[in-house]
Amino acid sequence: MKAKERMAIDRQTCAELSPEIRVDNYDEVALGFTFDMAQKEALRCLNCKKPGCRKGCPINNDIPAFIGLVAEGKFEEAYWKVRETSSLPAICSRVCPHENQCEGKCIRAKKGKAVAIGLIERFMSDWMVYHQKNMRAECALPIGKKVAIVGSGPAGMTVAFHLAHAGIECTIYESLPVFGGMLKVGIPPFRLPRHIINAEFAVLKSCGVNIVHDVVIGRDITLDELKGEHGFDAVFIGIGAHTSRKLGVDGEDMDGVRHGVDYLRAVLSGNKVDIGNNVVVVGGGNVAIDCARVALREGSENVFILYRRTIEEMPASTEEIHHLQQEGVKIEFLAAPVKIIGEDGRMTGIECLKMELGPPDDSGRRRPVVIEGSNFVIAADCVIPAISQNVDHEADKGHDFKLTSWGTYVVDKTSFQTNVDWIFSAGDSVLGPQTVAKAVYQAKEAAESIRRFCLGEDMYEGRDVRDLDS
Ligand SMILES: Cc1cc2nc3c(=O)[nH]c(=O)nc-3n(C[C@H](O)[C@H](O)[C@H](O)COP(=O)(O)OP(=O)(O)OC[C@H]3O[C@@H](n4cnc5c(N)ncnc54)[C@H](O)[C@@H]3O)c2cc1C
Fold this sequence. Notes:
By secondary structure, the protein is α/β, with parallel strands linked by helices. It is 31% helix and 16% strand.
């Protein structure tokens, strides 16, 4: 097909559950492409000589190649093309911020809309699941080395996946009763259905990876015990960033204040958490938006988001913000909390200040500046601060790890080795709260380093590792 004909095809849009239906349940909102839509959308790809999409993908997926295969109806081949680089295609295709990554760099978007790369990837991954196709690649025979992995999030599972394929025995230690890290206890099922996570992890587990649940490394077993008594050759730390950052305002310790990831973990673990009818969520990223949408589904009637900048600076994806507003959540822009107010230890509202935007800060976004004397109060039963997360260092016991000023592990940019040579780390514990795709990419590279370390090979030879931190 000629480029002109490809350019004439409109971007396909997938159906979504209507807001009235979806706010009462956790069913997936975006319904994905049909067979015809996926093929039609794939034909929009211009197969550029220097594909921007590939540069924009943190995992470096060969996007034009898999899209070309989808266009030819070769869905299984397309899936295996993505699996050359990605351990979690069905998950990344749903949760990646495509507009800032692959689709944000799509050359076709210079004239019109970007190719819907995420939805095409989702279609071919789901096609494999629904047709019960073999998604398991052969693993190498055991080479007599074993590695302990702390944390079963995307980073830990990706390391296990690659090491198991290299014939290295892996045991994952997970403090929670479920695997998947933030995929299971952070991102709600209406964005990432649990059967999809389970299908991807079944593939990883089929390589013979052991998972031990309800063990907190640092408390129940130390890192040194993993190496000593348990005889592991190396350890990978993929503990993510699970400690909610505080607002740092008066009254934050009152009843009724629940921090974002703690709230999500409680609800998504099946607990009934009564937060009342009037809820204010503070923040503008995915965590804040997920908290607000979960609160609605749990029965709160008036849910507000308080964000100190404007919609343009919100880190959450445009689609998430759109879905949130469709579901009836109001966003109070250019406002920041100064105090949680209440009586007898129980909060009754949140005092805020209005802001205006000043010059850009280090992140490139315009800095919010307080408008003095603009205080106002929002009455609320619950406030959910969801402004960011820090790394919880319980695992570190006995070691003095080099940390950044953000409290994340300092690692070598190629090997992902910490300052302890047999301990490696990647994902949110290195980058701070980031994305699944970045965790998957770093973990794949960390696994390669661990393999070389176990075999006594050079850690750097022939490698060109992307720096996702800059
Ligand atoms: C609400 C929410 C929404 C998000 N939305 C998106 C999105 O739309 N798109 C996107 O790309 N990313 C999103 N993210 C971010 C994404 O989930 C993370 O970047 C990713 O999960 C990081 O993977 P990880 O493996 O490094 O850490 P995690 O997924 O956090 O996994 C770490 C694991 O380590 C375990 N652990 C911690 N300490 C110990 C210990 N001492 N012993 C044993 N186990 C331990 C934890 O229980 C956890 O299971 C979201 C995050 C949240 C919280």
